């Protein structure tokens, strides 16, 4: 009878873990309802709490297993679209990212058992989770697509306070709400236990949900952009990335298609013309950029409209001279006995200055970079072909800002994947950027939530930094976003298009622009201290057991 009860209970726990995964998925952009995030982790908290209180009936890895079910479902249902570009990459991203999340939850479970004896300590989960997301932003296997705070990307009216906290503030909001709700459920809403405790928890939960939302809505309607207008044109050429962009359609044909679209909107009053990522895909030698015929075609358009500045994505090459120090990403050509680097680059052209380049520096693991290159560089030839540029690309340390002179805005040239990194973008703001231009190529994932999520995440970057955004995609969604995160204008998927709009620049630094992911740093120190305490207790307990065993003998 006990065995039958145990089996039934474990099946129930499995269903609870499954429910958490489904709720997380239903809450997520592009079309999810984000307020489900406030209840999504409650079933999983129940699973962990039940195992902690009945540890003798479960193996040590039980929480790891059940939480992996939750996070596998979430990753699978929200990022399955990676499969359209690479089946292997999708499996690796979904399976490994789910495992990382499950390990975090399991570590929290171990700390509860060791330090807190399975009582309380729910708040430790907040520090552990934010620490994980913070570290996940910076290492070679970075994949922050499912950072919890991103869940409100399509509803920025409720998270205007991200200009102070970034998305980690959203993490605290979401995780704390789940913990308060679970504690309220444990109290039986006052029906079976302390009514006073249940009342306090209920009031606390209500205030925790309502106050941040109310403050955000007030901030949304009282925020007014200063008038500092610049007229921008974004071009969406819609060149098929699989069958045209890097194969059958020549670079000249692609450029003429983009220029033809641009001429529909560009005039003497246009300040900026923005083309997408790798708009010139064949590769420009950086030392010979002023002799490139396609760059000359762009300069000819500037001569026609002297006020015009152009931001365009290109593939570029850096060739190393003999005895010049090589980067870790440098590639060797045996036939010619030389070294070179490949860069995914944004180029800035204007009438009164030489071309300025920025090299994309947040690269997609396994696509534009081989993780841990000093160790895994021999495997570089197996990199996933996503974006037309395989192998490990070169990067740069600083965030280059385009634009000089008093009459020009200062531009943050953000390339594709970089736009999901909040703290990374603050580097542009501290370097003086007053507008954000995102250039990307979102055609790899076909008509799935992938390109929609990518566009919606940009709305959070607008709120965090209070910067207007112009976004040019090869295909996907191009358009404009204001400083409150509102979408002012956008294009349709898989449609050649050109859009024009006047947006306001802003030079004021928000609290988040100044200090970045400070919440992540705090969480990291709390996590380190907690884990050190965990290790100390384990060692002391082990030492006591050894001493006790010696005394018995």
Condensed summary:
The chain is an alpha/beta fold and 553 residues long. 45% of the residues lie in helices and 15% in strands. The protein has 2 domains: 2-223 and 518-526; 229-312 and 350-358 and 397-505, 4-Layer Sandwich (Nitrilase/N-carbamoyl-D-aminoacid amidohydrolase), CATH 3.60.110.10.
Tell me the number of structural domains: 2
Distance between the termini: 41 Å
Number of helices: 17
How many strand elements?
13
Q: What is the helical fraction, as a range of percent?
A: 40-55%
Shape, per Cα inertia axes: globular
Low-confidence stretches: 382-389
Query: How confident is the prediction overall: mean pLDDT?
Result: 91
Strand content: 5-15%
**Largest sheet properties:** 8 strands, mixed
Give me some keywords for this one.
alpha/beta, Nitrilase/N-carbamoyl-D-aminoacid amidohydrolase, 2 domains, single chain, 13 strands
Structure explained in plain terms:
This protein is α/β, with parallel strands linked by helices. It folds into two domains: 2-223 and 518-526; 229-312 and 350-358 and 397-505, Nitrilase/N-carbamoyl-D-aminoacid amidohydrolase. The protein is 45% helix and 15% strand. The chain is built from 17 helices and 13 strands. The chain has helices spanning 2-26, 37-40, 42-53, 62-79, 87-114, 124-136, 162-165, 167-186, 195-222, 244-248, 251-262, 293-304, 373-376, 422-430, 449-465, 511-515, 518-552, and strands spanning 229-236, 272-274, 280-285, 309-319, 331-333, 338-350, 353-359, 411-415, 435-440, 469-473, 479-481, 487-490, 497-504. The strands form two sheets. Strands 1, 2, 3, 4, 5, 6, 7 and 13 form an eight-stranded mixed sheet that branches. A hairpin with a 5-residue loop joins strand 10 (469-473) and strand 11. It is globular. The two termini are 41 Å apart.
């Amino acid at each position: 009878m006990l065995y039958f009860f145990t089996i039934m209970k474990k099946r129930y726990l499995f269903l609870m873990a499954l429910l958490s995964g489904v709720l997380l998925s239903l809450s997520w952009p592009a079309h999810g309802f984000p307020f489900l995030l406030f209840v999504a982790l409650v079933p999983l908290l129940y699973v962990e709490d039940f195992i902690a209180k009945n540890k003798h009936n479960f193996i040590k890895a039980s929480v790891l297993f059940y939480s992996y079910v939750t996070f596998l479902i979430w990753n699978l249902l929200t990022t399955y679209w990676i499969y359209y570009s690479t089946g292997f990459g999708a499996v690796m991203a979904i399976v490994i990212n789910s495992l990382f999340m499950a390990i975090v939850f399991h570590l929290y479970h171990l700390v509860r058992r060791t330090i807190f004896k399975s009582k309380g300590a729910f708040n430790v989960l907040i520090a552990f989770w934010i620490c994980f997301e913070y570290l996940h932003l910076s290492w070679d296997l970075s994949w922050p697509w499912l950072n919890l705070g991103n869940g409100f990307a399509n509803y920025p009216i409720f998270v205007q306070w991200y200009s102070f906290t970034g998305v980690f503030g959203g993490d605290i909001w979401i995780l704390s709400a789940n913990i308060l709700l679970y504690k309220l459920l444990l109290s039986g809403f006052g029906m079976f236990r302390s009514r006073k405790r249940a009342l306090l928890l209920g009031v606390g939960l209500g205030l925790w949900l309502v106050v941040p939302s109310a403050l955000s809505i007030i901030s949304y309607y009282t925020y007014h952009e200063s008038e500092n207008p610049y007229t921008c044109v974004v071009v969406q050429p819609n060149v098929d990335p699989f069958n045209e962009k890097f194969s059958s359609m020549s670079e000249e044909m692609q450029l003429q298609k983009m220029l033809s679209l641009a001429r529909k909107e560009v005039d003497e009053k246009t300040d900026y013309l923005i083309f997408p990522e790798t708009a010139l895909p064949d590769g420009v030698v950086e030392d010979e950029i002023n002799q490139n015929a396609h760059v000359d075609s762009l300069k000819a358009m500037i001569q026609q409209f002297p006020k015009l500045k152009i931001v365009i994505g290109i593939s570029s090459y850096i060739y190393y001279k003999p005895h010049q120090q090589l980067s870790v990403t440098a590639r060797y050509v045996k036939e010619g006995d030389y070294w070179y680097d490949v860069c995914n680059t944004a180029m800035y052209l204007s009438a009164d200055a030489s071309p300025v380049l920025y090299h994309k520096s947040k690269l997609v693991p396994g696509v534009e970079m081989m993780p841990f290159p000093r160790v895994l560089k021999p495997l570089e030839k197996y990199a996933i072909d996503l974006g037309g540029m395989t192998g490990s690309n070169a990067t740069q340390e600083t965030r280059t800002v385009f634009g000089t002179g008093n009459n020009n805005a200062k531009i943050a040239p953000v390339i594709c994947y970089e736009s999901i990194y909040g703290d990374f973008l603050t580097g542009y703001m501290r370097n003086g950027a007053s507008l954000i231009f995102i250039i990307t190529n979102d055609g790899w994932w076909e008509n799935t939530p992938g390109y929609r999520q990518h566009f919606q995440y940009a709305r959070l970057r607008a709120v965090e930094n209070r910067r207007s955004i112009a976004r040019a995609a090869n295909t996907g969604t191009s358009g404009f976003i204001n400083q409150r995160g509102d979408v002012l204008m956008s294009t349709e998927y898989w449609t050649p298009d050109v859009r024009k709009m006047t947006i306001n620049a802003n030079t004021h630094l928000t609290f988040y622009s100044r200090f970045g992911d400070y919440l992540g740093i705090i969480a990291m120190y709390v996590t380190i201290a907690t884990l050190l305490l965990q290790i100390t207790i384990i060692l002391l307990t082990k030492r006591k057991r050894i001493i006790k065993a010696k005394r018995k003998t």
